[in-house]
Structure formats: structure tokens, C-alpha cells
Amino acid sequence: MSNEHRNSMGPVMNATREIQEISETPDIKYAAIDDLYRKHHEHKIHQFTEKNREKHISSWRVTKYAEEKVAYGTNYFLKIAIDENLFIHIRIHQRKNKDKYDFYALHEVVTLNQATCIFTEGKDEEYFLIIGVKKYSI
């Protein structure tokens, strides 16, 4: 298991066609978009409409990713463009010896009691590990 002292997350790399295709499977893409809209509705910080949702779905493009080999498979950390200069960070998991990928988490940051899952290119966000403490710059 990853922690601040032991972490097997590889380097952050530019997206590949394979990673893009994996991210576009409905179990990943629509789960992440649904989670984004649910969280932003709960926190009342963005007034996303159905038109925004359609644009976020059509603009979906992985820009960066990293892999972490774990005992039970591989975790993938993806930075995804959902609009011009708007990004989300998600974590997906591939079980060992399986071709199936599962959406695991949408990265959320809370600052001064304000939560967000949307990041801009210019903001030097940190890549995230849900189970670990060590952070990686994207």
C-alpha cells in the first residue's frame, strides 16, 4: 500500500491514445462527470447547466497521466480537460489480470470551507493519492 515513505507511482506522462480510449469508456467518463456534477451541486459553487455538461463530455481529453502498480492491480491518475483551461483529476483502477477499468475517485480540494473539483492549467495543482500522503506535481 502506498504511503508517504513508500510509493510506486511512476512519472507524470503525456496522454496516449490508449489512456484516452480507456478514459472514454462509459463506466469511467460518465461516472466522473456525474460525480463532478453531484459534488458541485452539493457545494453550490458552480451553476453548471445541461449545456455545460454536454460541453464537458464533448471536450473530454486526457492531457497527463501517471501509473501506480499496486498488489491488486494498477491505479491510473489522469488530468482531463473538460473545457478551455478547465481540468479535473480522476483516479481509475485496473484489477490485476483483468481488462476492466473502474472509476475510483474525483479529486476534490477544500480551501477555506470552499470545495472544488475544477482546476485551471495555470494553477500548479498537486496530483493526488486517495490512500497515500505523497503528492506529485502535474
UniProtKB/TrEMBL annotation:
Keywords: Protease inhibitor, Thiol protease inhibitor
Annotated InterPro entries: Cystatin_sf, Prot_inh_stefin
Signal peptide region: none
Gene3D superfamilies: 3.10.450.10
Domain of life: Eukaryota
Keyword Transcription regulation appears in the UniProt entry: no
One of the record's GO cellular component terms: cytosol
GO molecular function: cysteine-type endopeptidase inhibitor activity
PANTHER family, per the entry: CYSTATIN 14A, TANDEM DUPLICATE 1-RELATED (PTHR11414:SF21), CYSTATIN FAMILY MEMBER (PTHR11414)
Family designation: Belongs to the cystatin family.
Entry protein name: Cystatin domain-containing protein
Organism: Rotaria magnacalcarata
Source organism phylogeny: Eukaryota, Metazoa, Spiralia, Gnathifera, Rotifera
